[in-house]
# Entry
Amino acid sequence: MKPVYINSVGSISSQKTYDNSWFLDDIISYEDNIILAVDPNYKDYIPPASARRMAKGVKMGVVASKIALNEANLQTVDAIITGTGMGCLNDSKKFLSAIIDNGEQFLTPTSFIQSTHNTVGGQIALGLQCKGYNFTYVQASISFESAVLDGKLMLENDEASTILVGGVDEIEEYTCTLHKLINHIKEEKTSSTDLLQSKTEGAVFGEGANFFVLSNLKQDSSYAQIVAISTYNTLGNSNVTDVAKAFLKENNIDIETIDILVLGNNGDVTYDSFYDELSSGTFNNTQQVYYKHLCGEFNTASSFGVWLASKILKTQKLPETVKLNDIPTSNYKTILLYNQYRGESHSFTLLRRC
# Structure
């Protein structure tokens, strides 16, 4: 089977990641329990008349995909695969509110059409006039990993040569209110720099879109090779350390060869123990990195983790703001990413420098 490479990236997040010439050079700190994405100038990418009709999640996805395509010098791709946990929440709310307010009569279809989970993938395809494979995965916190796995299998089997893969989720006020009621979002406002010291239930929620051009053709500008990816709904009677070891063994990787471990810590005192088990145990002597203090927690937040790992491998720079410890390393060749949400939807992703 052919190897799979990340040839370009595009990111819209709570940091100024929309400019690929920067790599977390100017960190934005927050003190809140919900953080919004930093908007680029959408007019630079989307005609204003079209942008007005798009929800924020759609705009973020379209722009992030265009950033990735521009960096790869591509006008179109063979396939588009998107992952999203909640889809276009704001348009869903608009449509449901209209049903109630208008007594189920005289409804315009616009909000309904734009509320479906595959709206982002559809809008990207319309812009590119791409008539190829277009699929959206809605698999909670492994939605992005499911999309990557699908694209990886297609490229390995030479069913395509370039695929646009991404993850996108947006914040919606009423949904966040419900998450607060059930303690999924922290009750108190939390400083992003002190996220892991909060020791309370819930996470700081965020939003964003991260897209990648995957290909089985390596370029001089390629970021990384996707070696392997595995997902697990639950771990059953196994602990996360045993699953991590089995994942590495299956891919003929020794623990000592992992240069960086990227963890999805979100400050939830109940569930960060999964990450603590790895960081204080088997990978105690490995450089450890976290990222959700920068982007917040959302269903496809792990796509920001892949963006971070890809940038580290290409630039060979490790920003101080993401370090969990400080293990001297001369260069970064192999990165292991681990993510879970509330004890479920576990994923391991292995990246290697090209």
Observations:
- The chain has two domains: 5-215, 224-353.
- The two ends are 17 Å apart (CA to CA).
